[in-house]
């Protein structure tokens, strides 16, 4: 019997933490992809340096790669990234392929490590917020919200695609996912092109989740809300969302909100694991109609997620419209809203670094009053389909239905 050595355990722990801090969970497959600027050779080099720094005995490269292969087969270093990759990582990857002098290589290594360290710090801040909400749900509420790739949920879809299926015009069905770490609960909201893809969807989903959390918390919310969102301007990172969050603080629905964004190209997190389970189910079973899709989502993860189809939207975007424009926040990844002495302040900085000071704005007078919003006027579903595809919705349903006629 071969006993596991201390060096083996350390190498295994190192790979596990490396994947956690630098890897991105994929939304379509149950895999974790490391940044494109890395190779297995560079990962082993980082491990060797870690062992030297911490006075650990390092195992040989062949043994290290064997542990990787056996223990972490889902952790990949892809030559070609399927998802949008980080620009800096792509530059590093291209540079490492060139013939470099020893001095040039060292300088590039320093820049690469600084870049990966920065994205790791941003990720660890999210993990910290998540843990705080799980350990103390009465004080902290942690949410992450994102949109799934719609190509996975267009209907109808079948596990085995025939040539005839390729000619079918499909109806777009979007899925917005939210994870509530305090309740350890997943939410899936489906919607169609009846509504524009903008922050109204985000804010309506957010308010539905907050309402559900309040019902599970005796009618009130924890005083601190941690909200993690994708770096998408039309959905999350815009003046409307910032003003709406400020409105929640001004109305004292919560006392403090932290809105955070991960580094572009390094944004895949636990909500993408949720999406990957849905995607796997989509490849395993047919979904012809919306109820089929809901059934598929309901069996994708345990416990069963909260599922809702959006038939109407409150126009929170219009409600949050203000003459005061918060501009130049493209590079900002950390926002904090807080109310004290009837004054609402917005603090922000590029990254959640202790060394970087907050900049602060008094936004009290710029915040609109929280009121009952109007309803978004959406296009009728049949009109959406006819306008987008030139085919009536009943046609596609009849074709799809014929697949199941014996």
Give an overview of the whole structure.
It is a single chain. The chain is of the alpha/beta class. It has 2 domains: 6-98, no CATH class; 140-389, no CATH class. The chain contains 13 helices and 12 strands. The chain has helices spanning 6-22, 40-53, 61-71, 87-96, 102-135, 163-166, 199-215, 239-250, 270-284, 290-298, 316-319, 381-389, 393-401, and strands at residues 24-25, 32-33, 75-76, 140-147, 173-180, 185-192, 224-229, 256-261, 306-309, 334-340, 343-349, 359-362. It has a 9-stranded mixed β-sheet with strand order 9-6-5-4-7-8-10-11-12, with helices on both faces. Strands 1-2-3 form a 3-stranded mixed β-sheet. Helix 1 (6-22) packs across helix 3 (61-71) and helix 4 (87-96) runs antiparallel to helix 5 (102-135). It is globular and about 65 Å long. Mean pLDDT is 86; it is low at 384-406.
């Amino acid at each position: 019997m071969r006993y596991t050595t201390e060096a083996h355990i350390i190498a295994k722990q190192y790979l596990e933490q490396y994947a956690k801090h630098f890897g991105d969970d994929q939304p379509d497959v149950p895999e974790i992809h490391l940044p494109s600027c890395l190779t297995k050779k560079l990962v082993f080099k980082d491990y060797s340096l870690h062992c030297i720094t911490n006075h650990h005995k390092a195992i040989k490269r062949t043994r290290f790669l064997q542990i990787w292969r056996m223990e972490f087969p889902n952790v990949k270093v892809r030559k070609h990234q399927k998802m949008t990759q980080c620009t800096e990582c792509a530059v590093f990857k291209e540079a490492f392929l060139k013939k470099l002098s020893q001095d040039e290589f060292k300088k590039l290594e320093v820049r690469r490590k600084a870049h990966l360290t920065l994205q790791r710090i941003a990720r660890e801040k999210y993990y910290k917020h998540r843990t705080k909400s799980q350990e103390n749900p009465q004080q902290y509420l942690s949410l992450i919200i994102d949109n799934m790739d719609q190509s996975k949920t267009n209907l109808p879809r079948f596990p085995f695609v025939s040539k005839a299926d390729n000619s079918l015009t499909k109806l777009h069905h979007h899925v917005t996912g939210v994870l509530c770490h305090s309740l350890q609960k997943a939410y899936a909201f489906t919607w169609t092109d009846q509504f524009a893809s903008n922050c109204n969807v985000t804010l309506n989903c957010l308010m539905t989740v907050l309402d559900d959390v309040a019902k599970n918390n005796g009618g009130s919310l924890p005083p601190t809300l941690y909200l993690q969102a994708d770096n998408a301007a039309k959905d999350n990172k815009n003046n409307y969302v910032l003003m709406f969050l400020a409105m929640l603080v001004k109305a004292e629905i919560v006392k403090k909100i932290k809105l955070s964004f991960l580094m572009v190209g390094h944004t895949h997190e636990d909500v993408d694991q949720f999406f990957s389970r849905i995607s796997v189910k989509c490849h395993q079973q047919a979904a012809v109609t919306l109820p089929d899709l809901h059934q598929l989502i309901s069996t994708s993860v345990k416990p069963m997620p909260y599922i809702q189809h959006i038939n109407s939207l409150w126009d929170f975007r219009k409600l949050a419209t203000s003459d005061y424009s918060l501009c130049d926040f493209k590079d900002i990844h950390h926002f904090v809203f807080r109310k004290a002495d009837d004054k609402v302040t917005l603090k922000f900085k590029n990254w959640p670094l202790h060394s970087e000071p907050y900049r602060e704005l008094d936004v009290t007078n710029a915040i609109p009053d929280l009121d009952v919003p109007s309803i978004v006027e959406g296009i009728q579903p049949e009109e959406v389909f006819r306008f987008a595809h030139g085919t009536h919705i009943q046609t596609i349903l009849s074709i799809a239905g014929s697949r199941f006629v014996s």
